[in-house]
């Protein structure tokens, strides 16, 4: 399950030699890999501290999920948790959209990308798009250069890996983990394999037959169901949360791209959904019109579609292969998830097994024509809820979050439930059963600087604010974009203050005072 990247191997993209074959590298004081919200915050903060900064984004667009359909903030329900660059962004959104909720602030994806661009330009950050990492050149414990698939290379005193996947740290031979730890590893009740449960709706257990021919095991399992049964509760495995895309949809006919039947559409892919709907109706449980689209808040006629707990846009059992796969494998998985969601929308509006009110309501929506205009109105970036995580100088755990541990090196706050999406969908006593624990309320909680640092014996000039050193259980809370921006801002400040580029030698008192000067909140209520 654990991926240890400590060998010096070309297979991991790690080069000991300083002879790379690339053109002369582009140099900066701080090189940030990943134009996610966390990476953007890191780049802006370092630049505001008068450092030359290059931000490298593997795609053509910065902003990560906030520019790709995730248009509600997942922000804390309490004030005085997020300050600094997060608050700056949210204040702009609040001013632009006049949302009535003082905490839950909504915005458009295209606005988010544009606003991030404005902030980056105002800080004089140099943004380089279509730069996907291929190799890392190290001299002992110091990263000297990173090479891109474009053929370019970039050199810096400090590097920040703000990618969702943690690709820079992995290629730099930092110790990582993909999957979840056992319950015993860190003494976490939410860790490891959980108890399987059949779908439960309105206190009624919903029975969904898992076999292609109902009742016939020999006919094989329906798509999306795997034959693992109940694993040992609390044990470690390589399961990860389900992935999806966050759709942006509208009922505005002048801006609507209708849902259509995608190439290769296979109704069997949605047989579990059809049987689930039939079971709900048999149990006399109402299926609302927004069953597939949802009932989220609308901004300028646009709605952010996320997954629901059962049989929705989520695709299960793909996280480990995505996290550990090469670019070809990741593209295959992303395409498969896109096809699943496009097919689901078609199923929802056309299949006679879907209640007519639901079909009609779904058909009244479509993709937003003015969003993701180079991608047919479909988000460009998949929602990778988790991938690799660093095993660094300090591992943040459930106990730290729930117990509100305090630290001498706190650099920001997090506040979101330990919210876990689908882990395993399998068979229990002849019916579909899921392994997904309920959300656990935590926070606000402090996050220490050490949780962003590789072990001192590995790399000394790398900071990791997104794929941070946290257990799986803790990461189910940390994983939201406002928290990533908090961590990113702290990473940018630390990179700017690192003497000789050594992030282990940052003066913590100076770091904390600098963050306070830039309005980062380090203690709840203060």
Structural description of this entry:
The chain is an alpha+beta fold and 526 residues long. It contains 13 helices and 23 strands. The chain has helices spanning 37-48, 84-97, 109-122, 167-171, 183-186, 271-282, 319-324, 327-350, 356-363, 398-403, 472-478, 481-497, 508-517; strands at residues 14-15, 26-33, 53-57, 126-129, 133-139, 142-148, 153-161, 176-177, 200-201, 204-205, 211-213, 216-221, 247-250, 256-258, 298-299, 302-305, 366-368, 389-390, 410-414, 424-428, 431-435, 445-448, 462-463. Helix 1 runs parallel beside helix 12 and helix 12 crosses helix 13. The model is unreliable at 1-12 (pLDDT under 50).
Name a few traits of the molecule.
disordered N terminus; 13 helices; 23 strands; alpha+beta; 526 residues
**Number of helical regions:** 13
Radius of gyration from CA coordinates: 23 Å
Overall form = globular
Cα separation of the termini: 40 Å
Roughly what percent helix?
Answer: 25-40%
What's the total count of β strands?
23
Quaternary: single chain
The description of the largest β-sheet is:
8 strands, mixed
Low-confidence stretches: 1-12
Q: Quick check: average pLDDT?
A: 94
Structural class: alpha+beta
Strand content: 15-25%
List the helices and strands and how they pair.
Blueprint: E1 14-15, E2 26-33, H1 37-48, E3 53-57, H2 84-97, H3 109-122, E4 126-129, E5 133-139, E6 142-148, E7 153-161, H4 167-171, E8 176-177, H5 183-186, E9 200-201, E10 204-205, E11 211-213, E12 216-221, E13 247-250, E14 256-258, H6 271-282, E15 298-299, E16 302-305, H7 319-324, H8 327-350, H9 356-363, E17 366-368, E18 389-390, H10 398-403, E19 410-414, E20 424-428, E21 431-435, E22 445-448, E23 462-463, H11 472-478, H12 481-497, H13 508-517
Parallel strand pairs: 1-5, 2-3, 2-7, 3-4, 7-23
Antiparallel strand pairs: 5-6, 6-7, 8-18, 9-10, 11-12, 13-16, 13-17, 14-17, 15-16, 19-22, 20-21
Helix pairs in contact: 1-12, 8-9, 12-13
């Amino acid at each position: 399950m654990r991926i240890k990247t400590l060998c010096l191997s070309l297979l991991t993209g790690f080069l000991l030699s300083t002879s790379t074959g690339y053109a002369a590298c582009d140099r900066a004081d701080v090189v940030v890999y990943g134009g996610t919200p966390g990476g953007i915050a890191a780049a802006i903060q370092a630049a505001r501290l008068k450092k030359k900064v290059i931000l490298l984004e593997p795609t053509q667009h910065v902003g990560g999920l906030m520019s790709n359909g995730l248009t509600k903030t997942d922000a804390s329900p309490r004030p005085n948790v997020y300050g600094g660059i997060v608050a700056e962004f949210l204040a702009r959104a609040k001013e632009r959209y006049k949302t009535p909720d003082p905490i839950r602030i909504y915005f458009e994806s295209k606005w988010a990308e544009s606003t991030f661009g404005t902030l980056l330009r105002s800080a004089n950050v140099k943004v380089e798009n279509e730069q996907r990492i291929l190799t890392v050149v190290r001299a002992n414990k110091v990263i000297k250069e990173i090479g891109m698939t474009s053929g370019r290379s970039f050199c810096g005193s400090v590097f920040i890996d703000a990618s969702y996947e943690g690709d820079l740290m992995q290629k730099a031979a930092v110790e990582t983990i993909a999957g979840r730890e056992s319950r015993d590893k860190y003494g976490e009740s939410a860790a490891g394999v959980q108890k399987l449960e059949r779908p439960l709706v309105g206190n009624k257990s919903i029975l969904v037959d898992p076999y292609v021919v109902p009742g016939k095991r020999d006919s094989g399992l329906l798509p999306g169901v795997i034959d693992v049964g109940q694993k040992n509760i609390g044990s470690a495995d390589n399961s990860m949360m389900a992935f999806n895309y966050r759709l942006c949809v509208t009922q505005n006919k002048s801006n609507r791209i209708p849902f259509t039947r995608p190439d290769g559409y296979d109704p069997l892919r949605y047989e579990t959904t059809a049987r689930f709907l039939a079971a709900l109706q048999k149990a006399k449980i109402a299926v609302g019109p927004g069953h597939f689209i949802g009932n989220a808040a609308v901004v300028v006629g646009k709605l952010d579609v996320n997954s629901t707990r059962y049989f929705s846009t989520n695709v299960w059992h793909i996280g480990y292969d995505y996290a550990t796969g090469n670019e070809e494998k990741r593209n295959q998985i992303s395409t498969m998830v896109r096809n699943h969601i496009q097919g689901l929308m078609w199923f929802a509006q056309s299949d006679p097994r879907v209640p007519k009110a639901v079909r009609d309501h779904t058909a009244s929506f479509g993709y937003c024509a003015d969003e993701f205009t180079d991608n047919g109105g479909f988000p460009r970036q998949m929602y990778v809820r988790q991938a690799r995580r660093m095993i660094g100088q300090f591992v943040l755990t459930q106990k730290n979050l729930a117990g509100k541990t305090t630290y001498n090196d706190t650099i920001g706050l997090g506040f979101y439930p330990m919210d876990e999406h689908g882990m395993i969908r399998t068979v229990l006593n002849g019916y579909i059963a899921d392994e997904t624990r309920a959300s656990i309320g935590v926070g606000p909680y402090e996050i220490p600087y050490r949780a962003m640092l590789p072990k001192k014996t590995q790399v000394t000039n790398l900071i990791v604010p997104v794929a941070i050193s946290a257990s799986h259980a803790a990461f189910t809370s940390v994983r939201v974009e406002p928290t990533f921006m908090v961590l990113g801002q702290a990473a940018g400040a630390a990179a700017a203050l690192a003497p000789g580029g050594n992030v282990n030698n940052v003066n913590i008192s100076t770091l904390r005072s600098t963050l306070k000067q830039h309005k980062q909140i380090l203690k709840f209520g203060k």
